[in-house]
Amino acid sequence: MINTHICQQKTSVKKRAPCFCFILFVLLVFFGFINTAYASSVKDLESQKINEILFNIHTYYVDDLALQNSEYIEYNSSQFERLYSKLDAYSKYLDKNELNALFNNTNGRYTGLGIEVKSIEQRTTIVKVINNSPAKQAGLRSGDIITAVNQHYVENSPIDLVAQYIKDSANGKVQLSITRNNTQTPLIFNLSRKQIKLTSVTKQLLDSGSGYIAINNFSNHTLHEVALQIAAMQNHYGHSLKGLIIDLRDNPGGTLKSAVAVADLFLQDGLIVTTKGRFYDSNQSFYAKRGDILKGAPIVVLINENSASAAEILAAALKENLRAKIVGSQSFGKGTVQSLIPLGDGDTALKLTTARYFTPLGESIEGIGVTPNVAINQTTLPQTNKAVIIKNEQLEQNTVFNAEELADIQLVKAKQLLSMQ
């Protein structure tokens, strides 16, 4: 039986902008949604579990793979592996550790270093450092290049290998060699993985009674955090917000339920999203309930090429219901929904693509993405520096920002549009 629906974060390479972008932690999970790079092998599964997985694929998978006369017991291991390989990149068997990690991260917890990395010119580059993390405390910065992990040289290595070295570090101790600003002598950082509590929403006050929130992912707590941050800004002003910028840049997704709930905060009525699949329970339409937390105040949404899945659901819902203007670059284009199906032993599960989602106008964004109303391309801006742009001041005297980080033209345009509405 399908247990939990998740709009899985992007894990494949986008055709027009090839990159892998995710946070490194114990099991390579990003805010609770499994990255598939090191999902468990199915080679050694028992025949009973293979039959159970085959049944679930036959019953729930979004596409009919035409299993051989439905005689699952006739499949041997090699045949099963060939069938399993036909699943999309988001469908995986999860062992006990991976399943526990998924639950922990869905609830805003993970164990790791607290860095988001991206492969840039075959070099593993840190693009974001999470607050209250070992990486932040050690002094790692956006733009740092990882050249070695525990003395393993990795400068031209695949990002998956870099992640595996960090994951396999004994006793959670990790030594990173870092090149910063093209320096010849590497900087050495000794860190320990630890459990980090993630905040999915941050806020800033804008001029003229407006506000800004950045939603970093969609977890079980996102709805509460969004409502709380908006209420805090309104309490500060003593009146309802006159406008709001919602920053979804670099948001890889999260749960379908969370995205729908957040969209409902800002819509009086209308269709939010529709899901369609082979299994009857995969066919659903989600509508907004009456009540707009902003009472009709204008909204501008920021997206970029790393905004995916649940982030795209929210952006498309607000755009197509004419509730918000979208600024930025074309989003990732992740238009499928995964479900978590527990297996009989109670310790493992199958994460399976069970539906495709469609925007209020009936469009699929799979491989396409959400098109902004105002297209502005810009290099990814780390979340830690967005507050500096908005407030036009440095949060810490010793913080160093380059010109590119300070030239957030997407945010500047969003503020301009907000003031004009």
Quickly list its features:
single chain; 421 residues; alpha+beta; 2-enoyl-CoA Hydratase, Chain A, domain 1; Pdz3 Domain; 2 domains; 8-stranded antiparallel sheet; 6-stranded antiparallel sheet; 11 helices; 22 strands
Calculate Rg over CA atoms. Answer: 22 Å
Task: Give the CA-CA distance, first to last residue.
Answer: 47 Å
CATH topology of the largest domain: 2-enoyl-CoA Hydratase, Chain A, domain 1
Question: What is the name of the CATH architecture of the largest domain?
Answer: Alpha-Beta Complex
Shape: globular
- Counting copies of identical and different chains, the oligomeric state is single chain
Write down the domain tally.
2
Determine the structural class based on helices, strands and strand pairing. alpha+beta
In terms of DSSP E residues, the strand content is 25-35%
Q: Let me know the number of strands.
A: 22
Name of the CATH superfamily of the largest domain: 2-enoyl-CoA Hydratase, Chain A, domain 1
- Mean pLDDT across the residues is 80
CATH level 1 class label of the largest domain = Alpha Beta
Question: How does the major sheet shape up?
Answer: 8 strands, antiparallel
Unreliable spans: 10-39, 380-405
Organism: Pseudoalteromonas undina
Protein name: Carboxyl-terminal protease
Family: Belongs to the peptidase S41A family.
InterPro entries: ClpP/crotonase-like_dom_sf, PDZ, PDZ_sf, Peptidase_S41A, Tail-specific_protease
